[in-house]
Amino acid sequence: MPENAETYIDLGWEFHAKKQYDQAIEQFRKAIEMDGNAVDAYYGLGLSCKAKGEKEKAIQAFEKVIELTPLLEDRAKAQILSRLAQAHLEALRGSDGEA
User: Fold this and answer.
1) How far out from the chain centre does Cα 76 lie?
2) Is the dihedral of CA 59, 60, 65, 67 positive or negative?
């Protein structure tokens, strides 16, 4: 069993890359259980949920990314993740007429 959230995040990205979204979601959720501030896990969770068509879960994950990015020490990464999450939110919300 992995010792830390990073290991689960890495596994999540491996599954995501193979389009094995259920397994990716499971790994990202395990990472979040270990570290509730794991921005990368929330971002991966959002992408995997979005790919599966789980719109509400994806929106919740991307909102959490935006909430957590101010905690990142790497300001450039924080800004990039925040902008990417915002773009995904706009796309997800725009698809049903909300905006």
Assistant:
1) 18
2) positive
Structure tokens at 95: 């698809």
Quickly list H helices, 1-74.
5-17, 21-34, 39-52, 55-68
With beta carbons less than 8 A apart as the criterion, state whether 85 and 65 touch.
Answer: yes
DSSP-derived 3-state class of residue 81: helix
Q: Each residue of 36-80: pLDDT tens digit?
A: 999 999 999 999 999 999 999 999 999 999 999 999 999 999 999
pTM over 0.85: yes
CATH 3.40.1010.10 given to domain 5-94? no
Residue 89: enclosing H or E segment and its boundaries? helix 75-94
Domain ranges of the chain: 5-94
Cβ-in-10-Å burial (0-12, 13-18, 19+) of 86 comes to: middle
Q: Any idea of the CA torsion for 28, 30, 31, 32, to the nearest 10 degrees? A: 90
